[in-house]
Specification:
tRNA-Hydrxlase_MiaE; tRNA 2-(methylsulfanyl)-N(6)-isopentenyladenosine(37) hydroxylase activity; 7 helices; tRNA-(Ms[2]io[6]A)-hydroxylase; Ferritin-like; mainly alpha; Ferritin-like_SF
Length: about 190
């Protein structure tokens, strides 16, 4: 369904399990950034009522996920660490087109967002199927479903609002680009790392 070029090696979970506090902290901040991204899309596209409604719903869900991860951190006697840079997301950001119309920029921002959600969904699936901690396995299985919904929402809106862009071709370009950079990741106990 996701069409990603490279699957995450399940052995990545061994790295994650060596530092649960780190993956949870990173995950919490990923959820906060996802909520901020949805709000940013609203800010720049407030005239698109349907988009605003859906982005506000996604922002709410992402903040709920942030709270859920924070609750797990507290329940385990761990500490929410400082926000970290997400090098994977920063590399994806470089691929966004900087020219064209406002509508073109919106569509590329939606594809950028769909790409992040697709990889997060895939990583949560790998976690849910391979992590030894059964509570976290269930947690990540549930979040995987939510991320898949966000992925399809972003992709659907990119198709809806496209103007001069062949969205299917541009999405293939995104898939190819992501496939070229993901080979540098999967070596750290972070969601995208």
């Amino acid at each position: 369904m996701l069409g990603l070029k490279l699957a995450t090696d399940p052995r990545w979970v061994n790295i994650v399990e060596s530092n649960i506090e780190e993956i949870l902290t990173d995950h919490a901040w990923c959820e906060q950034k996802a909520a901020s991204n949805a709000i940013s899309i609203v800010t720049y596209n407030s005239e698109l009522e349907e988009l605003v409604t859906e982005m506000l719903e996604i922002a709410r869900e992402e903040l709920e996920h942030f709270q859920m991860v924070h609750n797990i951190i507290k329940q385990r006697g761990l500490t929410l660490g400082r926000e970290r840079k997400d090098h994977y997301v920063n590399e994806l950001f470089k691929f966004m087109k900087k020219d064209g119309s406002r509508r073109d920029a919106l569509c590329d921002r939606l594809l950028f967002s769909a790409m992040i959600e697709a990889r997060s969904c895939e990583r949560f699936k790998v976690l849910s199927e391979n992590i030894q901690d059964q509570d976290l396995a269930k947690f990540y299985r549930d979040l995987m479903i939510s991320e898949a919904g966000h992925y399809t929402t972003f992709l659907g809106f990119a198709r809806k609002y496209q103007d001069n862009i062949d969205i299917d071709k541009r999405w293939k370009d995104w898939i190819e680009y992501e496939g070229s950079i993901i080979t540098n990741y999967g070596k750290n106990e972070t969601v995208h790392g």
